[in-house]
Amino acid sequence: MSKKDIEYALMLLAIQDLNDLFDSFNDNELDNDNDLIKEILLALSSLRYLVSRDHVLKSQHWYHEILPLYDDIWFKKVLRMERQQFNKLVQVLQNDTVFQNKGNKPQAPVEFQLIIFLRRLGSKDDILSICS
Q: Where are the alpha helices (DSSP H) in 47-108?
């Protein structure tokens, strides 16, 4: 059930409550059921996500702790290139002016930025969300 579905259900319940005000029929059991449904829908609508979300792979933990554990096969699956090619690309990009920080805030290392870029570029989900 999406957030839009929950909001729609809440709207329908509100309309039903208004109709009940104009009805002479007052069934306490039905009112209690509607109140319970309303409370559940309000609780659901207050959640940010209805399903658990994966951690964003740009985290320092993933970069420092998990990525080094990948063998060459997993490295290529995740970043879509072999480790040797990746290291060579880092060497080529390292001196590019884009990666030379001119501000006060430290810039992430070239290797880290490239890993995040390749990971997102290689993921169907991230590409779809970027394109939309």
A: 60-61, 72-79, 83-93
- Residues 6+ away with beta carbon under 8 Å from 1: 44, 50
CB 95 within 8 A of CB 89: no
pLDDT: which is higher, 8 or 1 = 8
Per-domain residue ranges of the chain? 3-46, 60-131
Q: Which residue has the tokens 């999406």?
A: 2
Of 13, 77, 6, 72, residue with least CA distance to 41:
6
Name the residue with higher pLDDT: 95 or 38: 95
Asked if residue 34 lies in contact with residue 16, where contact means CB atoms within 8 angstroms, the answer is: yes
